[in-house]
Amino acid sequence: VGIHTGDSIVFAPSQTLADREYQRLRDCALKLISALKIEGGCNVQLALDPNSYDYNVIEVNPRVSRSSALASKATGYPIAKLAAKIAVGLTLDEIKNPVTKTTYAEFEPALDYVVVKIPRWPFDKFTKADRRLGSQMKATGEVMAIGRTAEEALLKAVASLEIDQKDLFSKEAAAASDRQLEDKLVHTQDDRLFYIAEAFRRGYSLADLHELTRINHYFLDIVAGLVEEEGRIKAAGLDKEVIYEAKRDGFADTTLATLLNQTPAAIRAFRKANGIVPVYKMVDTCAAEFDSATPYFYSTYETENESRRSAKPSVLVIGSGPIRIGQGVEFDYATVHCVRALQKLGYEAIVINSNPETVSTDFSVSDKLYFEPLTLENVLNVTDLEQPVGAIVQFGGQTAINLAAGLEENGVKILGTTVADLDAAEDRELFDQVIKDLNLRQPIGMTAPTRQGVLDAAKEIGYPVLVRPSYVLGGKAMEIVYGQAELEDYLNQNADVTGSHPILVDAYLEGVECEVDAICDGERVLLPGIMEHIEHAGVHSGDSMAVYPPQSFSGAVKVQIEEATKKLAVALKCVGIMNIQFIIHDGQAYVLEVNPRASRTVPFLSKVT
User: Which of 31, 376, 468, 546 is the most buried (most CB within 10 A)?
Assistant: First the structure.
């Protein structure tokens, strides 16, 4: 109590309430709703004393809330849709449950699985912000995961977060002293889960952790059990039974590969050779008591598969994961329109996503929905079953683009712009060569795979310079630096420079920024318009006010932008959508970057044009 609901990890159904407690709280909520004469959606928040049956009412919101979407996706019971029908005069006993299509909406959902929600915080972007959690919500989004056990659902949720930690191991937690570790445990913070796991690795007991965190023993024991299982996996090696149990508990192939000094590909091959593959269970609102007509699935490691591949040709559309700084609901907008276009063309549209707040994870949007982490392992598991014509990655933001190469390597056809051409836009050296071949302008830039290389590049180009890691999202770790001391501080604070993750160093040009979203079929290019940024160069496009059409560009500048856009779209063999950002300096258009995917400006342009 005291941590905002939007910043809390949530398990559903309730895991630690005795029936007496559950019924007491349920009765309280129903009395409040009746007394307040609520019709439609309502959110009630209660605080229960863990040492007695006493409780307090925190607040009642006579509307749908942030948790309404989570509750709807977790149960398959569409709260907002039913609330709308109630608003126009229907009653629950008159409304058919849209999932079963046989029972009525007055039946409360029953779950035969566990759902875990973990908030997605922006502290990877705002590294100097206060990470402690309290009554003011700091999360930008959330992920939801479904499993047959709490352990499985928890690990799937962690894998969905789109952060550096893909499981319960954290380099920062491992490097912390015992004093630092205990400080992280006492104070509620976004990454406390990883420090709890580290504490168990160091021999802290359940009693110790409960005393430090005040978290219920049950939830602490879940983490303790998973840490103990790490040891069993290491000791057993590639043992069929141990690997099967690990998969049942939610361990990802990447985690098993780390524990066993293998590659994820080797773990995947071992699993498939030994018949250790997931099955898919249906979210049906009634714990399989009634038949369900809704194709809404989650994976688990059991025997009976409830998802059946249809004879109709299908296309897999990869979503964008949790909302975070730089990647928000605009990509879900594009995903939903992609689904509708595929359906009109006669394809079965299959969506995979992990975000309960999005329209794409409404079971009524796509022909089939898989609520799964957006990792290579989970997407490949779906393609193994569904055998789609191909996968579309250009509407899921950087999350989906990052999966493209791995999918292609495993035989999944990428529809639209090819992986090779995606790389030509995202790889600095390849892109520089495209710019030179087309005789276009871009700021002087260099790529440095080492710390000293970054310092040398900045000195050679001349300050100020714009520095950023390759494959950035939403300007993460992107800064303008004006001298060597500032650059060294930047490298100390933000950048993990390696050969596979080099730093890009560009000359900083004063000027006006603009961007375009273009559509190309490989030969013809459509450019709906140019968006001129109001803020000075160096302010991220997502933080800049913009006007459409541009107000200060000359005809010659517009022609430069149009010609450069058409040349780049054709040269990069774009099939679909792309975003290009320019800076206008001394009357000349310089290319800043090309994103071979949908961008945050797609909904804006769609509305204004």
Answer: 376
May I ask the CATH class of domain 512-608? Answer: alpha beta
* Residue-wise pLDDT tens digits, 245-268: 999 999 999 999 999 999 999 999
- Angle at which helices 253-260 and 217-236 pack, to 10 degrees? 50
Residue 460 buriedness (CB in 10 A; 0-12 / 13-18 / 19+): exposed
User: Is 400 within 8 Å of 320 (Cβ atoms)?
Assistant: yes
Per DSSP bridges, beta strands 575-585 and 114-120 are: unpaired
The secondary structure of residue 350, as a DSSP letter, is E
CATH of 5-273, one of 3.60.15.10, 3.40.50.300, 3.40.920.10, 3.30.470.20: 3.30.470.20
Whole-number Cα distances in Å, 123 to 161, 187, 592: 13, 16, 26
Report how far residue 261's alpha carbon sits from residue 234's, in angstroms, rounded to the nearest whole number. Answer: 9
Q: List, run by run, the mean pLDDT of 10-residue segments along the chain (609 residues).
A: 94 94 95 94 94 94 90 89 93 83 79 95 89 95 97 98 93 96 96 98 97 96 98 96 98 98 97 97 68 81 93 96 91 96 97 96 93 98 98 95 96 95 85 92 87 90 86 67 90 64 85 94 93 90 92 95 96 95 94 90 88
Residue pair 525/487 in contact by the 8 Å Cβ criterion: no
Q: Which residues contact 589 (CB under 8 A, 6 or more apart)?
A: 441, 557, 560, 561, 564, 582, 583
The pLDDT assigned to 107 comes to 80
> What are the CA-CA distances from residue 313 to residues 280, 390, 406 (Å)?
20, 10, 22
Contact 160, 153 (CB under 8 A): no
CB 273 within 8 A of CB 66: no
Contact 176, 195 (CB under 8 A): yes
Please report the pLDDT score of residue 471 as a whole number: 57
CA 197 from centre of chain = 23
CATH number of 309-415: 3.40.50.20
Say if CB 160 and CB 353 are below 8 A apart. Answer: no
The answer to whether 292 touches 308, Cβ cutoff 8 Å, is no
How, if at all, do strands 525-526 and 512-521 pair? antiparallel
Which residues fall within 8 angstroms of residue 20, CB to CB, at 6 or more apart?
Answer: 53
CA distance 149 to 279: 15
Where do the domains of the chain lie?
Answer: 5-273, 309-415, 444-507, 512-608
What amino acid occupies position 4?
A: H
Name 604's Cβ contacts closer than 8 Å, sequence gap at least 6. Answer: 531, 546, 548
Task: Single out the residue of 531, 515, 500, 495 nearest to residue 568, CA to CA.
Answer: 515
- Architecture category of domain 444-507 in CATH: 2-Layer Sandwich (3.30)
Crossing angle, helix 397-409 and helix 376-386, to 10 degrees? 60
